[in-house]
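Posted in: Protein Modeling Q&A

I'm a second-year student putting together a small comparison for a lab meeting, and my supervisor asked me to include a predicted structure for Multidrug export protein MepA. I've never done this before, so apologies if this is the wrong subforum. The sequence is pasted below exactly as I got it from our records. If anyone can share the structure token output, I'd also love a short note on what stands out.
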Amino acid sequence: METVKKKGPGSIKQDEKLGSAPLGKLIIEMALPAVAAQIINVLYNIVDRIYIGHIHGYGDMALTGVGVTFPILMVISAFSAFAGMGGAPLASIQLGKKNYEKAEQILGNSVGMLLIFSVILTVVFSVFKNPILYAFGASDTTIVYASQYISIYLLGTIFVQFAVGLNTYISGQGNAKTAMLSVLIGAVTNIVLDPIFIFVFGMGVRGAALATIISQALSAVWVIRFLTSKKSVIRIRKKYVRLNAKTVGSIAALGVSPFIMQSTESLVMITLNSGLQKYGGDLYVGTMSIMSSIMQLIIVPVQGVSQGVQPIMSYNYGAGKLDRVKGTFIRVVSVCLAATIILAGIAITYPSIYAKVFTANTDLIELTCSVMPIYFLGITVFGIQMTCQSTFLALGEAKVSLIIALLRKVILLIPLAIILPKFMGVMGVYRAEPIADFSSVAITVILFIITAKKILRNEQKNDMIE
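Accepted answer (user: helix_wrangler)
Welcome! Here is the predicted structure, written out as tokens:
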């Protein structure tokens, strides 16, 4: 039976431009706000760390302690990506087919999933936080700071889930600027509140966490308000929040890839921090706190470009306009590769610029500067992998996207980070990253060349049959 298609509840001009506007102009229009949103979003954690690292008397240990909480933050973010990035491309494909009701059902089910995730994550991490933090690389010296930060942060889990998970549905309908504003509201609030709570009120790391959850709450309110308003092409409707097994299955099939991409970042940090603690000590764990923040600054602009254009690919794939899909990919992979070469190149060449922003400890600065060029070498070509990964998500190809998600971190990086230190000492932990990066990019390119042609060829055949 043919699916009944209805006109969207809001103005449909915003989503229709994805299939008709000139590609170059459209990519810029979608990518720039997405890049800005990604950069602004990463400021939540980085601004916290900059302020924390400069707390008089114990800033270096507090910075290391908060760095240990990073895997938990990534797991929370990963669940929001599971529902949001798993559902938004599917909703965009349905918009391309003019099936607005199905798109709203996908949105509603994502809301239901995020509510459930919020409750489970808050309870589990609150109950088991100390054993988890020790497993993630905390020491008896740094556990107090890690525990103080994460205890308050967990109270805002539901705000993180909605702010991050549902914002993809705003950009997915072509409203990239609105999606950027939702992040900007939270980030500006966070930057203003951080020094007030940390230094003026003397709350230390607790103040940093409180500033973050208040900021995320404001972002969440903005997102929900938009998605329930007439400005949104698709809206959150109560009848669709109740989970439907088939819809949840579709979201999960596609969402497992970004979930693994982000949750395994947590597993990577656990492995790296544990190895650095075992073979080096707190000072080496401190270098990873700094470098993980810098890594975010390099990757998020590229991630913003690749995710920003996802709705263009998804919409046109659903509409059968394959030339626009190909044209978008070629432009984006070129931009993303150039970006990683330039941004990683700066970190490799001038590491002290970054290190001094996070700490005044000369030993920590010196150690970070010595290992950063090694650690970031493979990131120079990482723009290729991110574009391929994002393209498979945009086309709804869950299996291939899952393979790529597992490849770099689970199959390559984690085993290397465990094995190499046995032969190279603590430097083996740092060298595992570039080896995994270069290897995964090479394999991803081969998979993409083989698979993408087959996907587009099959879509052309389906169009001819229809």
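A couple of things worth pointing out for your meeting: Residues 21-465 form one domain. The chain has one domain: 21-465.
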